[in-house]
Structure formats: C-alpha cells, structure tokens
Amino acid sequence: MSGETILVADDDAAIRTVLNQALTRAGYQVRVTSNAATLWRWISAGEGDLVVADVVMPDENAFDLLPRIKKAREELPVVVISAQNTFMTAIKASEKGAYDYLPKPFDLTEMIGIIGRALAEPKQRHVGPGDDGGDKMPLIGRSTAMQEIYRVLARLMQTDLTLMISGESGTGKELVAKALHDYGKRHHGPFIAINMAAIPRELIESELFGHEKGAFTGAQSRSTGRFEQADGGTLFLDEIGDMPMDAQTRLLRVLQQGEYTTVGGRTPIKTDVRIVSATNKDLKVLINQGLFREDLYYRLNVVPLRLPPLRDRAEDIPDLVTHFLRQAEREGLAPKRVDIDALERMKGYPWPGNVRELENVVRRLTALYPQEVITREIIESELRTEVSDSPLGTADGGPADPSIGQAVEDNMNRYFRGFGDDLPPPGLYQRVLNEVEYPLILAALTATRGNQIKAAELLGLNRNTLRKKIRELGVSVYRGPRST
C-alpha cells in the first residue's frame, strides 16, 4: 500500500463517495470536500500528494484555482474532472498546469492508473501559451470518441512530437492540425498546409523545398518552399499517401538530418518546423504495394491519431448543427432552428461525407428554406438528395457500386471543391490520366495473377508496351492468389 494522500474536491456527493471508496481500496489516504476553499486550505498547509478536482465548484472554478496551486506547490499533480466535455476544457486543463483531464463519467480503473503514474513520474512544470482561447471552439463534440481526441491533443500541446492524423475525408483532419498549432508551443509561428494530392507530382519537391533561379525550365527566379515558409511553426502535409517516392526520400532525409537543400541549390538550410501529416488511406497497404516508404511511415507516425467518422459519434450532430447555424447567421443568413425530430433523423443518417457533408447540408438549409424551423420532412428531402448524389449509398442507405465514369466524376467534383473559389494547377488532364493508369494496370495484373501476357490482352495493350508501363510507373507485379 502506498499511503499517499489524495485530495478530492467535487460538488457531487455521489462522485466523492465513489472516489473515496475506490482510492481507499487502492491503498491511498483520501480527503474529500465539496468546495475550493477547503481544498485550498489543505494545499496551502502542505497536505496531500495529488489533487482530483472538478472544474465547477460552488465557490470557485478549478481553472482559477490551478495557477495558485502551481505557484504554491509546483510539483503537486492535479487531475481535473469535468462534465463540460469540450475541446477547450481539455486545452485549459493543460494550459493551467493540470497533470491530466478526465471527462465525466470517467472509468475508475483509468483514474487510478493516472493517479499511479502521476505519483510515480518526475514532476514537470506545464507551461501554456497564455491564451485561453476565449469562447472560440475549434473542435466540436462531447462524445466519448472526441473526448479521447481532446485528451491526446492536450498532451501534445507543449511538445514537438510528429503527429499523423488518419480518418475518412471530411472528418476534420486539417482542423485538428490547426488546433494543435494554435494552442501549442508554436502558436506564434506560421501554420502552413499543403495538399499532396493537389500538387503536380513533378512540382512537389519545389513546393516543399523551394527552388533556385534556373533550376528547371520556367524557374525565372528563386522561390521559397513550404519548409522555409513554415520555419518556427507547423507544416501540415495533407494526403501524405499521395507523395511520390522521390519526394518521400527527400522528406525522410529532412526528418533525419534537420536540414534540406532547395531544388537546384547546394547550401543546406536548417529547418525548425513541427510536422503534422494526414491521410485518408491505409499507408500500410501502400507500404506493401511499394508505394510508401516504411521508414518514412515510422518517422511520421510517432503519435498516431485516428479521427472517428461522424456516424460513430452521432451524438455530436446537434452541437455541430447548432455551430453551423450560428456560423451561417454570422455570415448574414437568416437564423434557423432544427426541431428535435429533424435532429433525430440526422443522427440516423450515415454521413458518408462526414462533418463536411453535414456542414454543406446545414448551409443549404439556411440558404434555400424560408421556414424558421427546419422539420423532419425538410431533412428527409435533403437527405434523399444527398443519397441520390452520392456514389457511396442508395436510397435505402445501403452501399452502391457506381460506374467508373460516375466514380471519376464524383472524385473530380470533390477535388475541385477542395480549392474553394480557386482552380487547381494547370496540367490536370495529364495528371488524371497518370493517376488512373497505375491502379488500372495493377488491377489487371492482380486479376491475371501477374501473367503479363494475359494482362496485356485484357488491357488491349502490346506486351512490350505493358512492360514499359510497369517499369515507368513502378507497378508491383502481383503473383499471389487472387483475393476475393
């Protein structure tokens, strides 16, 4: 038995009782109170080895008390608990110097584990960027899935660890990266984002590292790359799975050596950036296909963070809808309200486009419907339109197999929407053909179990032409059993 004393402060008598019993069974001495004044009296008298405190107490907010605790007893770990399960609660807990944050209701085993680690670890001072963010809410949701996201982000705020965010399209990967930057130690530096899928392959190295005048045809002057632009801040590499092999090799060298050279340059340039990458692909599959470097994967995937699809956190939909309605109202659109039955229907829809699709639907509702209250019937009509327009579902919500042409059209529509009011770089026609060619040849080789003669016949190509394409594109010749 450890014998250390845990100070518990919570206005809820049931939580005080449960924690008292559980911590006592775990071998700790426990003192409980319902108010901040008593807690502060114990702390200032030198009592207690760890504090468990609710954010909201009848006489004082724990976030107001925390700075006094850290000033008086810097090494005293504080675990914050709260029913205000928002991103900002987790961030404020980290900024104010809390050891950890647990949303209510919490798991007692997890709580005891956190207390044990806190008491065993060397105590370190937590220094926040000093801006509590006001009422700004960069991430929305109080679901269990989002609580874990908030906790991971709060732990990463004061580090420079490399983070890889995975998740389906539309789940908010760039928003998470931006929140990590804005509330982290590099918040005074720039946040630079680059989408690998939106840059021509032959220009990616120039985009990342810059180029010297005359480095290639059309290079009329020196150009700074994204690494140089992000110096002192965060570089967000979106759709990292689309990065070509040559650029992957150069990126790996930068991560290993902390320096790079511009295209056409010779002088190494030191880099000081935090790398956050994101993907909606399974990079391990790409590694097995020879399309992604395994050593780069482990360099980027120091801290993995998977964002849940919206269908797995449907309880967050009312908060998201409210947020998007307020946003639309601030932009000059008429105020709207969604009734309870309509919200329930939205919670039952699978949202293949995730939060981005939900935002688009809410914007249409505010722009196209004169009614102040959005009813279930209106939502049903809008969701039928969403399903009929989507290659991912049918009218009854089940999966559908789109034609190749429809799939390409839908993909291109999403691609263009990603640029907002701008247009993608020139050369789109050839880029699309190049992107289609690789999976087409790979699928043919897979279907014929690596038989190039049969694959050439299937594709309608000369065998020598197919061999040339395999070499040029770096297609892995598949000879295993055909998958079902």
UniProtKB/TrEMBL annotation:
Where in or outside the cell is it found? Cytoplasm
Q: Which InterPro entries match?
A: AAA+_ATPase (IPR003593), AAA_lid_NorR (IPR058031), CheY-like_superfamily (IPR011006), Homeodomain-like_sf (IPR009057), HTH_Fis (IPR002197), P-loop_NTPase (IPR027417), Sig_transdc_resp-reg_receiver (IPR001789), Sigma_54_int (IPR002078)
> Which keywords does UniProt give here?
Activator, ATP-binding, Cytoplasm, DNA-binding, Nitrogen fixation, Nucleotide-binding, Phosphoprotein, Repressor, Transcription, Transcription regulation, Two-component regulatory system
The UniProt record lists the keyword Lipoprotein:
no
The reply to whether ATP-binding figures as a keyword in the UniProt entry is yes
Kindly list the GO CC terms recorded for this protein: cytoplasm
The 4-aspartylphosphate modification is found at 54
Query: Sigma-54 factor interaction domain spans which residues?
Result: 139-367
List, in alphabetical order, the GO biological process terms annotated in this UniProt record: regulation of DNA-templated transcription; regulation of nitrogen utilization
Task: Tell me the ranges covered by the Response regulatory domain, including all copies.
Answer: 5-119
One Pfam family for this entry, by name? Sigma54_activat
Tree of life domain? Bacteria
Molecular function per GO: ATP binding; phosphorelay response regulator activity; sequence-specific DNA binding
Classification via SUPFAM superfamilies: CheY-like (SSF52172), Homeodomain-like (SSF46689), P-loop containing nucleoside triphosphate hydrolases (SSF52540)
Major location, coarse class? cytoplasm
Query: What PANTHER family does the entry give?
Result: DNA-BINDING TRANSCRIPTIONAL REGULATOR NTRC, TRANSCRIPTIONAL REGULATORY PROTEIN
Q: What does this protein do?
A: Member of the two-component regulatory system NtrB/NtrC, which controls expression of the nitrogen-regulated (ntr) genes in response to nitrogen limitation. Phosphorylated NtrC binds directly to DNA and stimulates the formation of open promoter-sigma54-RNA polymerase complexes.
NCBIfam families according to UniProt = ntrC
The name this protein carries in UniProt is DNA-binding transcriptional regulator NtrC
Q: Which organism is it from?
A: Pararhizobium mangrovi
What's the encoding gene here? ntrC
